[in-house]
Specification:
alpha+beta, 5 strands
């Protein structure tokens, strides 16, 4: 698979030292706004920061507001949440949605899914104090996060380069509320 996001390792860290380094040095972004001071694992996915050709960048910009271009991206995002029983979820963040951020979440007893976008994850953690099993579990999660982000970007780039955005005029029936004098039939 082509690698678009810089900084994502191709191979999962195996030694304790490399796992600590991977988690400690992973790029992070604010979980809501910078003012809340909470940060989580993230990947920068702005087109200008990806390893793309000029033609690919232009094709991606053309597809930004084409709803169908996002179908596979959202499916991959949902698959990640499903794999992690919605305890971990992905979301786009930033003024231009140029970052994919890892969030904590879960499922209510009635099956509704929830997310805590304002919580920090592993912010200022001292990973050297973690048990090896706990460290490995977190590395597995973050590596899955990174690979999922890469798949999301690849899906969008592939769609954008295999399709052309065109404009069509579409008539959309719409119900509106209007006032009628009392006593007239509906």
């Amino acid at each position: 698979m082509t690698k678009y996001i810089s900084g994502i390792p191709r191979l999962k860290p195996k030694t304790r030292e490399s796992m600590i380094e991977y988690l400690k040095n992973h790029f992070r972004y604010s979980t809501m706004n910078s003012w809340n001071g909470s940060y989580s694992y993230a990947n920068r996915v702005k087109f200008r920061n990806l390893d793309l050709t000029t033609d690919q960048v232009n094709a991606c910009y053309d597809m930004l507001d084409v709803a169908s271009a996002w179908d596979e991206v959202h499916d991959i995002k949902w698959q990640f949440a499903h794999r992690h029983k919605h305890g971990w979820q992905l979301g786009f963040n930033g003024r231009s949605s140029g970052y994919i951020v890892l969030y904590m979440g879960g499922t209510h007893e009635d099956g509704r899914v929830f997310c805590w976008p304002g919580k920090s994850i592993d912010q200022d953690e001292d990973f050297s104090t973690w048990e090896t099993e706990t460290l490995e579990a977190r590395v597995n999660l973050i590596f899955d996060f990174d690979q999922t982000c890469e798949r999301m970007v690849a899906a969008f780039v592939e769609y954008a380069t295999e399709n052309t955005a065109t404009e069509e005029t579409v008539l959309v029936p719409q119900k509106v509320r209007v006032a009628k004098p009392k006593g007239e039939s509906k």
